[in-house]
Write a structure and sequence with these properties.
single chain, 215 residues, alpha/beta, TIM Barrel, 8-stranded parallel beta sheet, two-stranded antiparallel ribbon, 27% helix
């Protein structure tokens, strides 16, 4: 079965085009204004207006209220909401019900005990995304997209009643190994396909998706 790939943090036409042509399953738009990958909702709508059918538009939010999500949705059509902050299971379920969209919740991982944080979201979130937890030595770390990875062996044999996605420090060179070790069938990449923070490299996007298609 082909690995599902999500290219996150897209904010320019050449990156979107490379992701689409390469067969991405999802494109991620970051609506967190502290991120170098931030895209204004209206611009996100323009960039994804002509995406091929079947490619899901994912909007990434960090600890926002309903009003902010509603304002974003007034500009851009999204197929899935991704929460990448400290949102509670109750908040995730409430947003899912209010906006009528499936939800992905990021869980930050540094050690095996961190995986337990995913359990309360079962039944509330439609997807769980496992991302690397930034160490305390990075006080200015972003909620995601820090080019950090965690021990992929922690996910080996993971049994969840909902789909899950591997994120954190992935790139075209380590993707195959990450999938082999973790058992992931869906992956998310952002910094690993960039020329610099916030600027996607179409060649790296194509290489990442080519690898995903061969696994």
């Amino acid at each position: 079965m082909r690995i599902q790939a999500k290219i996150c943090g897209l904010n320019a036409a050449d990156g979107v085009a490379a992701a689409e042509a390469g067969g991405t399953a999802m494109v991620g738009l970051v609506f967190y204004d502290r991120s170098p990958r931030y895209v204004a909702p209206a611009e996100g709508a323009r960039l994804t207006a002509s995406l091929a059918p079947g490619i899901k538009r994912v909007g990434l939010f960090v600890d926002v209220d309903d009003r902010a999500i509603a304002e974003t949705l007034s500009h851009v059509r999204l197929d899935l909401l991704q929460f990448h902050g400290a949102e509670t299971p109750e908040r995730v379920g409430q947003a899912k019900a209010l906006f009528g969209l499936p939800v992905m919740k990021a869980v930050k991982v540094a050690e095996k005990a961190d995986l337990k944080a995913a359990r309360p979201f079962i039944g509330q979130a439609d997807w769980i995304l496992f991302d690397a937890k930034a160490p305390k030595s990075m006080p200015d770390a972003l909620p995601g997209g820090n080019a950090l990875s965690f021990d992929w062996r922690l996910l080996d044999g993971l049994d969840l009643p909902c789909p899950w996605m591997l994120s954190g420090g992935l790139d075209p060179e380590n993707l195959a190994e990450a999938v082999r070790i973790s058992g992931a069938r869906a992956v998310d990449v952002s910094s690993g396909v960039e020329a610099r923070p916030g600027r996607k490299d179409p060649e790296k996007i194509r290489a990442f998706l080519k690898t995903a298609g061969r696994i």
